[in-house]
Write a structure and sequence with these properties.
Radius of gyration: 20 Å
Number of helices: 6
Order of helices and strands: EEEHEHEHEHEHH
Distance between the termini: 62 Å
Largest sheet: 5 strands, parallel
Strand order of the largest sheet: 5-4-1-6-7
Number of strands: 7
């Protein structure tokens, strides 16, 4: 019923190639639904305006989708978010206002390396959303995976700290009891 495209920065008032690939993936899914003869989902362009951006990410994303021949009535914009959590929360608020269904089906679109963390975050917020990822250039992939790994650790920071302390205590006990 709804496709949420997560923002990813701009170049001036235009989407970057990374962000364009996210939008393209959502448009590909949108068109596949149209080709099946079912009502295509609405696409939510989600992203606020950073201090270094001249327009909101959502505004630039909408313009890109319009250039790709997506009808304006099928595009919603969420232009207040500053991170993935806010993308999901604020887009969900839009869905609740727009949808006549109690439980609409929702997919989010991001880059392939970000799907896992965004999915974990969606589930932790109580949203039953699935994600689809667009391809990433290889030269960017390694640093992105490291950043996502750190992000996943941060999502469960308290549990990870407790686990590290427990391992430390057990290691210390093992060392002192067996030596």
């Amino acid at each position: 019923d709804y496709l949420i495209v997560l923002g990813a920065g701009l170049s001036g008032d235009k989407v970057t190639p990374l962000l364009a690939s996210r939008i393209d993936k959502a448009i590909e899914f949108y068109n596949s639904q149209k080709e099946k003869g079912v009502k295509p989902p609405k696409i939510i362009m989600s992203g606020g305006q950073g201090p270094d951006e001249i327009v909101s990410e959502a505004f630039a994303m909408k313009n890109y989708a319009l250039e790709m021949k997506i009808p304006e009535e099928d595009i919603l914009i969420e232009d207040k978010s500053t991170n993935t959590e806010e993308n999901l929360k604020f887009s969900t608020d839009l869905i609740k206002k727009d949808s006549d269904k109690n439980n609409p089906e929702v997919l989010f679109f991001t880059t392939n390396y970000h799907v896992l963390r965004a999915g974990i975050l969606a589930k932790s917020l109580g949203f039953n959303y699935n994600g689809l990822g667009s391809k990433t250039k290889f030269y960017y992939y390694v640093s992105a995976i490291i950043r996502e790994y750190i992000g996943i650790i941060y999502l469960n920071l308290n549990q990870n700290i407790l686990f590290a302390i427990l391992i430390g205590i057990l290691s210390f006990l093992n060392y002192t009891l067996w030596d």
